[in-house]
Amino acid sequence: MTSSKKIENQLVDHLSSEGEIQKPEELRSWLNESDENQQSYQKYQRIWATSERLGKAGRYQSDSAWTKVEHQIKRKQQKVVRLVRLSYAAMGAAASLVVILAFAFYTGQFSLQQNNMQLTTNYGSRTEVVLPDGTKVKLNSGSELEYHFNRLTKSREVVLKGEGFFHVAKDGHPFCIQTPQGMGLEVLGTTFNISAYPEDEVVHTALVEGSVKLSNEKNQTTILSPGQIMAFNSKDQSFSERDANLSHIVGWTENKIYLDNTSLKATSVLLERWFDVSIQIIPEKLGEDIHYTGVLEEKDIRDVLHALSELSEIKYSIEGNEILVRKR
Question: Where is the Protein FecR C-terminal domain (predicted)?
Fold first, then answer.
């Protein structure tokens, strides 16, 4: 058993006994090693107390105790991460703490902040999370989400860089999303998908159910109805309805990539995010000349590239995470 694993287990045993089990020698030595370890121990005590309190609460109240978690997942350190609100931990406080401590020891990134939450997903991975208000979010590869509950305006505020599928909890408080391109979204309770990667000029919003209001920096607004897909152009701050299949837009939540006459260039961008690779197309014009229609469900980039090469006149070479695509 590794040293960090032993410390983790001893912390859980000590905290779960409510102090009845004395700190073992290894744990005392670890605490005495640095002020940082002392501070970490105090954080774990607070997490333990919070998890017990939330476990007894029965259900979430937006103006009562909050579960505050900040996870910064460094690229290439973690492939798949699933975060669960402490109050939803069915296995009890001890099991919740084991997961949290293990994650904290592994990444060295764990802190609590009042009413705030931050989450970053890696390229090559997708993440599910329950926000403090009960809203369920699936984050696509290479996405960042910041959540804040504004007690003055009683609104739930989110900054999204990337793509997320939201099922917003209805608690009477506005739920607002801001994107890097200057588009805002406001909703009371609904299900929708929004794609707003910082490098993308166009933001796409697809409404599954409910109603959302979109706004731009010119204070112009538009309201979406279920089934509508709206494109927002950051250059001229314009909105335009997009003719597309809603199930294809949200297909990534089921680990599917739908291609609707999608260019090789656009497909490569999707694959770069999906598999955490870098794709170069030579000549560049080739990326616009070839288009695909279909669905990709392969779990390995080599299988995807093989399928694409069967459908078009391309060949590829792979070196590490660098991929070169040429005309065959």
Answer: 256-325
Cβ neighbours of 58 (radius 10 Å): 8
Say if CB 270 and CB 294 are below 8 A apart: no
319 exposure class (CB count in 10 Å sphere: 0-12, 13-18, 19+): exposed
**Tens digits of residue pLDDT in 218-269:** 999 999 999 999 999 999 999 999 988 899 999 999 999 999 999 999 999 9
- CATH 3.55.50.30 domain span(s) along the chain: 256-327
Q: Kindly report which listed range (91-100, 132-141, 160-169, 178-187) carries the lowest average pLDDT score.
A: 91-100
Find the range with the poorest average confidence among 126-130, 200-204, 267-271. 126-130
The length of the chain is 328
pLDDT for residue 189: 76
List phi, psi (to 5°) of 220.
Answer: -85, 145
Its sign, for the CA torsion 73, 75, 78, 80, is positive
Show Cβ contacts of residue 299 under 8 Å, excluding neighbours closer than 6 positions.
255
Determine whether 231 is exposed, middle or buried from the number of CB atoms within 10 Å of its CB (0-12, 13-18, 19+): middle
43's enclosing H/E stretch is: helix 35-55
pLDDT in tens, 71-83: 333 333 333 333 3
Q: Which CATH number fits domain 128-248: 2.60.120.1440, 3.40.50.300, 3.30.70.2690, 3.90.1720.10?
A: 2.60.120.1440
CATH numeric code, 256-327: 3.55.50.30
Where exactly does CATH 2.60.120.1440 map onto the chain? 128-248
Cβ-based neighbours of 123, under 8 Å, separated by 6 or more? 75, 141, 142, 272, 273, 274, 275, 276
